Amino acid sequence: MTASLQDVVAWLKRELNFFRVHLLFFLIVPLISAVIFWAANGRFHIPFIDALFLCYSALTVTGLSTINLSTCTAFQQAILFFLMCIGNVTIVAWVMVLIRKRYFRQHLQDRHDKERFRTRVTKKLLRFAHFNGSQGPQILVNGNDTQDPTSPGAIRINPADGIGAALVAGGGTEIGLGLALAKIPSPIDTSGHLSPMRNSQQSDRANLANGRSILSDDEVQSPTSLRESMEIPEAGIVANAHSFTSSPRSAAMPLQYPISPTSHSVRFVALPQLRQRPGVPTPRRQRTMIMPPTKSDTLDANELGMRGKDQGLGGFPGPIQVSAKLAHRFCPELYARLEKLLRSDGDKGMKWLQKEFENLIVGRNSNFNTDELDDEDLEKLGGLEYRALRLLSYLVFFYFVGTQLIAFTLIAPWLATTHQYDDIFDAQPRLVNKPWFVAFQVVGAYTGGGMSLVDSGMVPFQQAYLMLFSMIFAILAGNHGLPIFLRLSIWILTKFVQDGSTADQTLHFLLDHPRRCFLYLFPSHVTWFLTATLVFFTAIEWASFIVLDIGLAVTQSLPVGARVVAGLFQSFAVRASGFAIVSLSSLAPSFQFLCIIMMYIAVYPVALSIRSTNVYEEQSLGVFELPPEDEDEEPELGEGQGSRRERIGKYFGWHLRRQVAYDIWWLVCGIFLICVIERTKIMDDNNAPWFNLFRIVFELVSAFGGIGLTLGIPTENFAFSGAFGPLSKLVVIVIMILYLLSKKATLPMPMLKVEG
């Protein structure tokens, strides 16, 4: 039984990685939660398919609901509350920080243990390597039958032991030079000890003691000249003394000559200078880039295909180019400021770090090349990054709790003291406690769950301005504003610590190299890009809400101020939480279509920013080849390249990989399946005003984008999905899970590849 369990554990460690664990968590936890949720049914019975739907919707923070949540028991509501908390992107990213911090600490501990073990072993070996007058250490070399292995202070060295044993033997002399183990004319006397040095060897020893080379520059340029200078017909091993450090990258350099089994001796020789500081480990390899073949940069601008009219839209500028030219012409100062703002400022972050670590090479996206760092600098740099991770492990958690606590503190006391909305709570099927309602509402806003214990959502609170602005803050803090607010918080903390202190260095490390530490923390220029994107999309939605819905009763019934605030709230909720402050089905079709577009593209600004700044995407191999520019082109499959079946399979596979890469196909398949399943309801003329293809598309885009907006049902307050049959609800659940798969691009590659 124990052996079988060990086999299972070994299989899991071999097959699981972070993404698989991540996916299994979002598959299994809702199943277990749904069973508990269904078993906790109260006066209002909830079918298991709806319990399953709600649990998946809560954990994926989609927010669609097929029932009125006010009919749930308090325990069932607590289950949904808990699922929204643990499924939030902040918690997922925080767990990744904790995992990385644990492995980082374990790595440092293992390194420290190995160093201590190496030190203990070296000390024990060096006890036998000591000075013996002017003759140096007594070293025995196997290969001579006359050697006396019992001589006091003698050290036995076999040729098979290699350079490490010879280094330990010579370590007592404290000569930090290279070492050559080679066959030479036997200088060993009959006692098995090193014979007295000849005159030339004595001068060599004097040169070594003064740090000078015993060979000329010409003689040390190649192993051949080295062997010739020592009159060695067959050479052994030559190593660089600087490479003998605790760094795992250090290595000896074996010369490809056989070692003779006859008598040997040991000589200390100076090796060529290697343009490096003493104690700096020699890199095992240098980074080599094999660039793909490129076209000549000196192409004629008048050549066919290179002319202006052959580019883009026939040479005509697109909307972005037109906007840039207009801004440059009419607002040159603003254009210059924005251009400077969007330009990468990565060099600023490198200056202070490279002052601390002169040999550190900071590459693209803060990819550190530490080959030239010695052990002390490596440990110092590792300690700095570990402190940054440790700070983040506290900061992110306090950010998660603190931002929601601010919103709760603003809303709860006000709502508890006002009686303006008492009749709304009294009208619910179950009595809803006000503080519990506020907590559920704030968590729904922060996580993007968008669920509400009041069946009509935010519609009754259209003029509750304190509540609306507090929830806008929660929506921003937990969704699209998370990278912005988190970086702002770290920047503010730098103003309260002493310049140059450990805390200051840790905070600036997070600001200068954020993507080494946290998934949703970006460099300055990327953060400004996200800010501009957030403002741009919000402005479009806000203006569209006001302009496109002019003359409609649902908006004209509101005072001007309430209408403006409602539009602002809805513009933030469309791409994040899914709360509706008005009946979306009563708004203009043009605004509904705009909501579909915004829900679909909601995840892309952050996801693309993650991909473009992913330090973990850099190749870790010393030699790698960049993918060719035309790797997406159709493969060349000639008639002689394999059988017809193989060529057809490769061609079909190439097309399939390209098409499946577009996640919209999953959405299209979901819509198609629901149209097949719900054919009767769609074709029923009585349902035509509300059960139609447009609403199906709206609902599935909302599920696929993880938003939770819905056009609803005329007779109920829950989502349009509540009108689906059980099989269609399962399709929507799959679409919500595919939303997680579409966010796979937001996980760093080591987390996808790291073995369990």
From TrEMBL:
Keywords: Ion transport, Membrane, Transmembrane, Transmembrane helix, Transport. It is found in: Membrane. The chain crosses the membrane at residues 20-40, 47-67, 79-99, 391-416, 436-454, 466-486, 528-555, 576-603, 660-678, 690-713, 719-741. It is a multi-pass membrane protein. Coiled coil: none annotated. It comes from the Eukaryota. It holds the Pfam family TrkH. The keyword Nuclease does not apply. Residues 277-302 are annotated as: Disordered. This is Potassium transporter.
